[in-house]
Amino acid sequence: CAMVCPDAAIPNTVHEIHDLLLGAIKQVNATEQMKSQMSAQVFPLTKSIRDRYRKLPGKEARPFHQIAAEALVDLEIDNPMLERAFHGMVEHLSGFSVARTRPFFDAMEKAKPGNGGLYSATIDPWKCSGCLECVDVCGPGALVEQKQNSEVLAQLQQTFTFLSDLPNTAPRFFSQATQPGGDTKRLILDHENYYSMTGGHGGCRGCGEVTAIRLLTATNRAIHHERNRTHMHELENLLERLGAKLETIEHDAHDPLRAQRIRDAIEIIDRRLYYLESGPSGRGPSSAAIANATGCSSVYASTFPFNPYTDPWVNSLFQDAAPLAKGFFEGMSADAVEQFRAIRIARLDLEDQYDPEVHDDFFKYFHWSQFSAEELALMPAIISMGGDGATYDIGFGALSRLLITNTPIKVVVLNTGVYSNTGGQASTSSFTAQDSDLTRFGVAHIGKQEDRKELGLIAAFHPNVLVVQTASAFQGHFMKNLMEFLNYNASPALFDTYTSCMSEHGIADDAGHRRARLAVESRMYPLFVHDPRKGATLAERFSLEGNPDIGRDWTSFTIEYLDEGGGVKLKEVPFTPADFGLHEGRFKKHYRPLNGAVKSMPIDEYIELSRERRYGITPFVWSTNAEKRLVQLAVSPAIVDLTEERRRNWRMLEYLSGLHIDRMNKEHLQEIGSWQEKYQRANKERESSIDAIARGMSELASASGAPLERGAGIKETPLPLPRSTHGAEQPRAAASTTTQQLPLVSIAEEQMAKCTNCKTCYQDLSELFEKTTILVDGTAREVSRVIPGALEKVQLTPEIIAKAARIADDCDAEIIEFNRPA
């Protein structure tokens, strides 16, 4: 819920038990002396509460205030006034909900007793706009819709005020979030990260752009905060060593300016340390500087009295955000040159390696292009941000010019596929058949007739550009590659994220996350990453990881409907762009009820036919009517074109990612295996024949009484094994068949009904888990399962194994079985 909320209205926090008790004690109507007596009992009370939580059965959920009330008995309080005050504390705790969870309490307590915390997700009534997207994504049903009234509002305000007085989440709960293999979602447990974008944005309720930007700024702040903290320790150590070194410097005719050079370096480094620790603002340096092209993202961020960014932000013209960001970087790097020069000089002098004849000239012309990877990482992220109109259309030329440079600018594309802020005109990112301004659905034209521009692919064919095409609905893919994007400094990087637009897509306020996920699953907007560091070939650089059913044109989805008897049934059908468009206003005019008399065919089968064979056949998609009965809806020719165009795009991505090579290798291995099997079978038959002949001759010799000459038996000459480049792999394959190894992860079929659909497993590890729909007591439910055959296809890297172990530990339903490989 916190990940999807565009309003920053659900801060998630992990609380120390003693902090909750101390927070409630502050609210008690008692004297300061009485509160001091209560505070003195907090740690014994905390221990008693923790012990009671440990003894609770895993599935039992009991309110915190009840456990606290029971734990008071262990204190054996004999002062009636003190006892009454503690009951007042319990009453205050009853208004604030916290939960014992597996990741934050059970797993932490198991690793180190006394380390677990209690989790809260608290609604901020001053920020919540009521889009209800959090309710839509909350699988366990912890959040529910409620109509606002004065009583509800007062209760929410009181609860959030209590949270505001509590400390931030302790670092141990999120310290590994930005490390390789860490759970990146945990970084928003730190309120400093969560509120890195705050204040009064004016976006629509449920806006997908705001959600993406919040995750971007939170992640960037987390990365730079950790990096700067480490850098400060390095500078402190450097200053200490420089001071000691300065005392040992003697006059050197070859380098007479050495002492002054060290003093200058100390002054510059000390000033840098001051800016890192606090600076004039008292908050230290900003982690980013943002050039925002005119569009929705600039309009809603300019709401009076202040914009929601805590980093420097400027609104540029529609077409020039990229060159403006380039100017930002050139100016900031010019300032950084002096500081990095001083640090380099200091290190050389400390090692007595500074040579004036060599280094004086080098540092005279020192430039950002000579910065090391470490130095570039210490620069604030320079972000060029805009919608698809600003980047796909009018700003495309300037963007392309930037992409051929080595300037490490981060280009963020908030892709709604339409000019959202100026009435909804089509852009080159809009889809075929889309009904929008300038591409209206009418008699002559039925929506947009051009194919969609693929900016991500165009950017990937610029030199050395990292490209990420993603959607925040795929949180694992989004957060993992957002980290890669923000850490990439070899050249520009482009981050194109699908952002749902309620008004222009024609969807409900709570549907942004859901529709973004379906856009990926239907191949409307596939996920991919082009990473030039991965290798020399396109197949090495392109990755489709995160997409469902790679290797197939379409994945499938489940339709829930009622049969003639009123029973709930499930129908699994291919999920095509035509199925996606059915539920969005921008495509709704392309669908009509199918006349039962016409010859029809599902659209996925229809597009497999040649143009000639399609004559007289009407393509359709499956859906349900208002009574939940199964119906067929005919689609327009424009939707057929959309489906074919998106299939072409998906197949091209599969080709670029080397899927055809993988298929050839697989077929080659299968063919080798087939020939080896044939050879072994023939060899076995030959051995059987030889044995039969030998037995026959032996029987003949016995019958005749003639002795066999020594060595006169039939000699067996083994046939040579066929040469194979895969010979080295054969012993391993044979060994694996003899040792039955348990699967890395599994979910028993009878356990699937217990799944709460928290989404963690298939969001964080989509290579192994997927969402599916099953019937439970006559009701359709979304649950998780291990993808059939996935464990045979996925290479089990240490990162995947670590993720799988963490996900199994964190599963609240306790249905994921993890088996660590031997």
What does this structure look like?
This protein starts with 11 loop residues before the first strand and ends with a strand. The strands form six sheets. Strands 4-3-5-6-8-7-9-10 form an eight-stranded mixed sheet, sandwiched between helices. A four-stranded mixed sheet has the order 13-16-15-14. A two-stranded antiparallel ribbon has the order 1-2. The chain has 30 helices and 20 strands. α1 (17-27) packs across α5, α10 (208-246) runs parallel beside α13 and α10 (208-246) runs parallel beside α19 (475-487). Mean pLDDT is 87; it is low at 708-739. The longest helix is centred in the C-terminal third of the chain and has 46 residues, at 659-704. The protein has four domains: 12-184, no CATH class; 208-248 and 256-506, Rossmann fold; 555-659, no CATH class; 745-818, Alpha-Beta Plaits. The protein is an alpha/beta fold. Helices cover 44% and strands 13% of the residues.
Short structural summary:
This protein has 30 helices and 20 strands. The chain is an alpha/beta fold.
Topology, element by element:
Elements: E1 12-15, H1 17-27, H2 32-40, H3 42-55, H4 64-75, H5 80-93, H6 102-111, E2 118-121, H7 133-137, H8 150-164, H9 191-194, H10 208-246, H11 258-277, E3 288-293, H12 296-299, E4 313-316, H13 321-350, H14 356-364, H15 373-377, E5 381-387, H16 388-393, H17 396-403, E6 410-415, H18 455-460, E7 466-471, H19 475-487, E8 493-498, H20 502-505, H21 512-521, E9 528-530, H22 538-541, E10 542-543, E11 555-562, E12 568-575, H23 577-581, E13 591-593, E14 600-602, H24 603-606, E15 618-624, E16 630-635, H25 637-656, H26 659-704, H27 730-738, E17 745-746, H28 760-764, E18 769-776, E19 779-786, H29 790-793, H30 798-810, E20 817-818
Parallel strand pairs: 3-4, 3-5, 5-6, 6-8, 7-8, 14-15
Antiparallel strand pairs: 1-2, 7-9, 9-10, 11-12, 13-16, 15-16, 17-20, 18-19
Helix pairs in contact: 1-3, 1-5, 3-4, 4-5, 10-11, 10-13, 10-19, 11-13
